[in-house]
Amino acid sequence: MTKYKLEYIWLDGYTPVPNLRGKTLIKEYDSFPTLEELPDWGFDGSSTMQADGSNSDCVLKPIRVFVDPARTNGALVLCEVMLPDGTPHPTNKRATILDDDGTWFGFEQEYFFYKDGRPLGFPEHGYPEPQGKYYTGVGYKQVGSIARQIVEEHLDLCLDCGINHEGINAEVAKGQWEFQIFGKGSKKAADEMWMARYLLERLTEKYGVDIEYHCKPLGDTDWNGSGMHANFSTEYLREVGGEEYFKALMAQFEKNLEDHIAVYGPDNHMRLTGKHETAPWNKFSYGVADRGASVRVPNSFPKNGYKGYLEDRRPNSQGDPYQIASQILKTISEVPTA
Ligand code: ADP
Ligand code: MN
Ligand code: MN
Ligand code: MN
Ligand code: MN
Questions:
Q1: Which of 13, 113, 218, 253 could cysteine-pair with 50, CB 3.0–4.6 Å?
Q2: Which of 283, 284, 304, 286 has its CA nearest to residue 296?
Q3: Is 99 inside a domain boundary?
Q4: pTM above 0.95?
Q5: What confidence tens digit (pLDDT) does each residue in 162-194 have?
Q6: Structural domain contains residue 95
Q7: Residue-number span of the structural domain to which 182 is assigned
Q8: Does ligand 1 come within 6 angstroms of the Cβ of 135?
């Protein structure tokens, strides 16, 4: 028997953006535990905005398990939060996803590294050279000395624990980066995005660097904000599609604009201004290869008979991928297929 360190990880009840929480349970197994072998556990919901002090027990139900690449005999146990009666806690948004393995999601997470209250690489006073050469840049002047080291270490952690990481790039602003997570099944994609965020947060503890997920940390300046573009396709979109269905789908997205914006991350009006490759938050638009539209339609989509995937560019870096996927699937479900 081996004593395993099981890190139970969940989302707390803070609004509008939940935080990652985790605590360790030591338990003996013959070999690395399967999901079925992991017990439900509990925590004090009064400390996480998930319960009153008088009746504060919440239940952690394991839903995914990964080998923890940074801990000897460690497991990362991603959980849903349940009420003691076994129903989903109101803060459990994963439970609202109408899942379907045929839905594929690719999330592009943008974020800033922050240190001493400013983006990593910014001077103590004033600004570095304006944007231009940072995006996909190389060299100390472009990316500094430790950002890439953190990014590479994070990439390895994700790949080592089996997260379907798809790539990284330095972004437009100094100190800003992106990684992409893709999953077949919206829950799978969203679970792995939260796990990748967890690994990034935990990793940067030792560097004394923060991750700033706010969508416009530098406010109303010429520095880009951060998004989390949601690329999605359903089996129907990939295999049947068609111009008529596509137009009906976009009309439904337009109709549901408010519902989408409500879950696409806080303060998005600061970012979706119509500048910096964004569309204004209150006006839905779509366009082929158009990075200034709400939804970008890849060039290949109309070429292939209106089949393939679409990119909703509005979700922001602080958005909850569970809520984003849930709303996109809800809107899709409202459009009849042939
Ligand atoms: P860009 O920066 O040009 O918008 P990225 O390469 O950063 O593009 O991200 C594109 C994302 O689209 C990737 O995460 C990829 O996994 C995802 N993607 C590609 N094909 C599909 C598909 N059929 N369904 C859903 N997502 C997809
Ligand atoms: Mn205790
Ligand atoms: Mn990208
Ligand atoms: Mn990007
Ligand atoms: Mn994109």
A1: 13
A2: 286
A3: no
A4: yes
A5: 999 999 999 999 999 999 999 999 999 999 999
A6: no
A7: 104-334
A8: no
